[in-house]
Specification:
CATH class of the largest domain: Mainly Beta
Strand content: 35-45%
Number of strands: 18
Largest sheet: 9 strands, mixed
Order of helices and strands: HEEEEEEEEEHEEEEEEEHEEH
Structural class: alpha+beta
Number of domains: 2
CATH architecture of the largest domain: Sandwich
Helix content: 10-25%
Shape: globular
Number of helices: 4
């Protein structure tokens, strides 16, 4: 009889342990996936999900976050990153991001079979940001916390559901892109900025000249008619020469004539990975003030100039 009582006590203790684990699991694994909705149907879906089931949503948590790879800094393509803390794979059929900074939303669409996120792994889903909402007061450029939500269509087994996840943005991806796009819009009301495709390399191959072109718009094309180039920063590949500083404190006004600035450059670094791993070295950052905003306006080198800059840096570093 004592053996039976001991067996019952052991079973009871095991049940208590299991119950405790289930009750504490959300605190260990993260947020729950939220309240599931039936999967959307119709021609707007790029995937062809199974009909929504009345079965429970996929067990355990999915979490969402935002990031941006360096080689997409000039394209406004961000990553919706989904992490699967389940013990089983989840298939993602589509993901949409919503934020007050980008009212039109950003979306990633899977192929017909969807994209599988294995247990314990994270998948990055690229989505291009639409035009920003630049109305209202100018945001604090240092503010990085912007509420965002990811609406994700998922399939686990035979169950298809839509879950709403708070999208964490620890790197301030949305705020940074919003400020850059709004700044670029305001600057574009004043002038167009570009880099000439030619690169003038010195005879000793150690320095070169990049030409920044500024073409003001006609007067009266918009409410913002003036901006100031506070300074021009270097890049991971390019730096100014100590005896040839780049222009600073330059005022550009709509209705004035075009201007061209000759920037003498040298390699900013000569380690073996400088060119091979370059992502943003040919995006020239102008620190500008325009329309109440101050930030970085990135002027990208075209394909021809980008190749010439890479060749120049390689040759200049080899000449040392």
């Amino acid at each position: 009889m004592s053996g039976v009582l001991q067996a019952r006590r052991r079973r009871h203790a095991a049940a208590v342990v299991v119950l405790a684990v289930l009750m504490t699991a959300p605190a260990v694994q993260g947020c729950s996936p939220g309240t599931p909705d039936p999967a959307p149907q119709g021609p707007g879906n790029s995937a062809a999900p199974e009909p929504a089931s009345t079965a429970p949503a996929p067990r355990g948590p999915l979490t969402a976050g935002l990031n941006q790879f360096r080689d997409n800094y000039g394209t406004q393509i961000i990553e919706i990153q989904l992490s699967n803390a389940l013990s089983e794979p989840v298939t993602v059929l589509g993901a949409e991001l919503s934020s007050t900074l980008f009212p039109a939303g950003a979306a990633w669409h899977a192929g017909p079979e969807g994209t599988e996120v294995p247990p314990g792994q994270t998948k990055s889903l690229p989505a291009r940001l639409p035009g920003p909402s630049c109305t209202g007061p100018v945001r604090d450029a240092g503010a990085r916390t912007v509420p965002a939500e990811a609406t994700v269509s998922v399939r686990q087994g035979s169950t298809t559901s839509t879950v709403h996840l708070a999208a964490a943005d620890p790197f301030g991806v949305l705020a940074r892109n919003h400020e850059e796009l709004c700044l670029a819009r305001d600057a574009g009301n004043v002038a167009a900025f570009g880099l000439a495709p030619e690169l003038e390399v010195a005879a000793d191959a150690r320095t070169a000249v990049v030409r920044l072109t500024v073409t003001p718009n006609e007067a009266g094309t918009g409410p913002i008619r003036e901006l100031t180039i506070e300074r021009i920063d270097g890049t991971t590949l390019l730096a100014a020469l100590p005896d040839s500083p780049w222009p600073a404190g330059v005022t550009v006004a709509a209705g004035t004539g075009p201007a061209e600035f000759h920037l003498r450059i040298r390699p900013a670094r000569c380690d073996p990975h400088a060119v091979a791993e370059d992502k943003v070295g040919t995006l020239l950052p102008l620190v500008v003030t325009v329309g109440g905003r101050e930030g970085i306006l990135k002027v990208a080198a075209g394909p021809a100039l980008k190749g010439r800059i890479h060749d120049f840096v390689t040759a200049a570093c080899g000449a040392h």
